[in-house]
Amino acid sequence: MRSLKHQILIFLLGSLILLASSFLVVMGFYMKDRAVATAIIKVKTDLATCEEILDKTYPGPWSEQAGNLYKGSIKISLNNDIVDHLANLTGDTVTIFLGDTRIATTVRGSNGERAIGTKVAPNVAQTVLQDGQTYVGEANVVGEWYQTGYIPLRTENGNIIGIFYVGISHAYEQEIFTQSLIKTAGIGLVLTCLVALLTWFFLQRAIVYPLHNIMLATRDVATGHITEKVKVSGAKEIGELEDAFNQMVEQIQSLTEEISRMTCNSPENEPIETKNLLTAECPPIPIPNIVGRIGEAGLPKGLHQATLGQITQFLQANRRPLSAEEVAEGVKLTRVTVRRYLEFLEHSGALRSEQKYGTVGRPVKLFIPL
Asked: What confidence score (pLDDT) does residue 236 get?
């Protein structure tokens, strides 16, 4: 069975992967539309640019002379230098038509030769030659689909005698789309990793670590080793679990001390060395003069012989000045409980105390075995 940590990790990674994939699919459709729109804008811009270059480089009207197309006095038919120059400037395919027939072009056929003498698509011919309008959109160019722009070429008296064309292949659109998608995917991957790290750090700090600490403390209780109160930080529910556990520890400690007291008062039981508080066995007081000073009067209300034996054993093993906090940490009891036993031992004459003053903060009370 997987641990909570692994289940959270799998859920987190699965959610982020699903979110990132959905984001890329949506962005893919958006980028594809943007690539088409970008290509159309470029076609329109290149048409206007090429038209202006032609007018300034070759002044004069378009005309047809002896079956050839002229711009002013310059022959355009079979003049591929013109279309090559414009293609280099724009990055597009460029064609000039006389009527519906290519007479200068950078478009090449399947044999690799310039497609001189081939016809324009019928729908384009209808729009440009018959209706006299500009055509912008997809069109079949010598068997391949392009984003295209066609404008009519007019003589001085306004008659339409040809077409000027620029086109962008779908490979260019695909390149724009791919580059945009790669950049978006890169940014999305970085953001996804960042969100994953931050979320995992938060889950570890707020849920996994606190639950792990409470689990370890619960195991100690289950094996008969009463632990100190746990201190964890986390969400409200984790705090409530911490409070519930600490209340359980306090109740177990009180119950154990009560059982030990009742067991030790029974004449049928002789004190023996204790191993842990849950055995309810009564350890002897290891410091003889403490036992002698206590006498038969017993302990004050609320103090128990088993707990006293545990504390005196620790004091005997560490015969040096100790604070209540150090003893509490050594015997795994609360500082308040330990202080009551230390003050009793001091009152009985088994210990003496003195104040230790530091440079900062309140003085510390040290207990010294006699």
From this structure: 64
Residue 209: Cβ within 10 Å count? 16
pLDDT confidence bin for 150, thresholds 50/70/90: very high
Least confident piece of the model among 116-120, 249-253, 280-284, 365-369: 280-284
pLDDT value for 174: 66
Q: How far apart are CA 207 and CA 198, in angstroms?
A: 14
d(CA 19, CA 70): 60
Query: What pLDDT, on the 0 to 100 scale, is given for residue 54?
Result: 92
- Give the Cα separation of 368 and 364 in Å (integer): 13
How do residues 268-295 score in pLDDT, each as one tens digit?
444 444 444 444 444 443 444 554 455 4
Task: Output the average pLDDT for the chain.
Answer: 78
Q: Which helix or strand (DSSP H or E) is residue 96 part of?
A: strand 93-98
Q: Identify the three-state secondary structure at position 337.
A: helix
- Which residues, in sequence order, are bridge partners of residue 151? 164
pLDDT at residue number 37: 82
Between the CA atoms of 277, 283, 289 and 295, what dihedral angle is there, to the nearest 10 degrees? 100
Over its C-alpha atoms, the chain yields an Rg (Å, rounded) of: 47
> Among 123, 135, 131, which residue's Cα sits nearest to residue 164?
135
d(CA 80, CA 140): 21
Find, among 109, 87, 31, 96, the residue nearest to 64 by Cα: 96
Pairing outcome for strands 74-75 and 93-98:
unpaired
As a whole number of angstroms, the distance between CA 308 and CA 351 comes to 13
Amino acid at 90: T
- The H or E element containing residue 49 is helix 4-57
Q: What is the amino acid identity at position 272?
A: I
Q: Hey, how many other C-beta atoms are within 10 angstroms of the C-beta on 277?
A: 24
Sorted by where each starts, the structural domains of the chain and their CATH numbers stand as 4-176 (3.30.450.20), 237-369 (1.10.10.10)
Q: How far apart are CA 127 and CA 123, in angstroms?
A: 6
Would you say 325 and 336 are in contact if contact means Cβ atoms under 8 Å apart? no
Residue with more model confidence, 206 or 72: 72
Task: Answer yes or no: are the C-beta atoms of 102 and 162 closer than 8 Å.
Answer: no
- Residue 302 in tokens: 């609320």
